[in-house]
């Protein structure tokens, strides 16, 4: 049974998962979008959402320190803070996951995770 089971292991130990998360975070913030497997994107998306939400809502030293501990690069923390200012009028949904294709080698579902646009559509 899956009762109270939380998180994803991604077939890695703890240190490998932390390194994977850190590299996904840094490349996502640096480039604005990344292509990865669906499992990694679902593992990664809540972390980005919480970092942005913490910077938007609190915008104090503790939120900045939390972002620095995750990213370990002051340039990326600054870039994340700028992105947080763009999303200051939103309550959530800062990233979106879109299906791309199936990877040819192992048939893994590939997705693209990117920042959502901050435009308000009249549709």
What features would you describe in this structure?
The protein is an alpha+beta fold. Helix content is 50%, strand content 16%. It is built from four helices and three strands, in the order αβαααββ. It has a three-stranded antiparallel sheet. It is globular and about 40 Å long. The model has no long low-confidence stretch (mean pLDDT 90).
What average pLDDT do the residues reach? 90
CATH homology-level superfamily: Ribosomal protein L17
Distance N to C terminus:
43 Å
Annotated CATH topology: 50s Ribosomal Protein L17, Chain: A
- Supply the CATH class: Alpha Beta
What is the gyration radius calculated from CA atoms?
15 Å
* Named CATH architecture: Alpha-Beta Complex
Sheet with most strands: strand arrangement: 1-3-2
The chain-level structural class is alpha+beta
Domains, number? 1
Query: Which residues form runs of ≥5 with pLDDT under 50?
Result: none
Report the helical percentage.
Answer: 40-55%
Sheet having the most strands: 3 strands, antiparallel
| Total helical segments | 4
Broad shape: globular
Strand content: 15-25%
